[in-house]
From TrEMBL:
It comes from Cellulophaga geojensis KL-A. This is Impact N-terminal domain-containing protein. It comes from the Bacteria. PANTHER family: IMPACT FAMILY MEMBER YIGZ (PTHR16301:SF20), IMPACT-RELATED (PTHR16301). Residues 23-128 form the Impact N-terminal domain. Belongs to the IMPACT family.
């Protein structure tokens, strides 16, 4: 049965630095939570300063739940030998809204493309093993507008359906922003939409 998914896996805080060694090359691995593509550049620049002797800081990221966006960057390593193996681990752990970066300090022995793929994949995997992965619920926000006299009716539905009130504004009339699980969104919209005098919009 194809049930619509309304949860996703991500992290809330950066993982601890890990170190993986392969033939004297050092691979430092990291996982960071991100919310937009703009978060990526400052993190990578900081890692390049932190590891100023690193020859490459390769990375991959993924964002979104419905529409997925991602990028893999080899940072001068042979094509697809670093960024994609890192991205493959993000997919293997089924994560989103994350950036995984691996800084490599060359140890004098060339690893070859196969060796690089294996090393970047392993460093990313170890870093992800150290990350604290959380399951989060995909929600949709609705805005309800109604008169004070209808507040009891609105609150009854909110309590029955265990909905979260994100914000409320009580002026000439009442405006509530409510958070609804994605899989319940249509049902909740229909309930409020059929209630007289209550306006609902997303």
């Amino acid at each position: 049965m194809n049930k619509e998914k309304d949860t996703y896996l991500t992290i809330d805080k950066p993982s601890p630095e890990i170190l993986y060694k392969d033939r004297k090359s050092k691979f430092f691995g990291y996982v960071f939570p991100i919310t937009t593509e703009d978060d990526v550049k400052p993190i990578i620049e900081k890692l390049k300063k932190q590891h100023h002797t690193a020859n490459h800081v390769c990375y991959a990221w993924q964002l979104g739940t419905d529409t997925i966006r991602y990028r893999a960057n080899d940072d001068g390593e042979p094509n697809n030998s670093a960024g994609l193996p890192i991205y493959g681990q993000i997919q293997a752990y089924d994560l989103t809204n994350v950036l995984v970066a691996v800084a490599r300090i060359f140890g004098g022995t060339k690893l070859g493309v196969g060796g690089l793929i294996s090393a970047y994949k392993t460093a990313a995997q170890i870093a992800l093993d150290e990350a604290e992965i959380k399951k989060k619920i995909i929600t949709k926000l609705y805005t309800l507008t109604f008169d004070y006299k209808d507040m009891n009716s609105v609150m009854r539905v909110i309590k029955q359906k265990k909905l979260d009130i994100v914000s409320q504004k009580l002026e000439a009339n009442c405006t509530y922003v409510i958070s609804v699980r994605k899989t319940k969104a249509n049902e909740i919209f229909t309930i409020f939409n059929t209630m007289q005098y209550i306006k609902i919009k997303d």
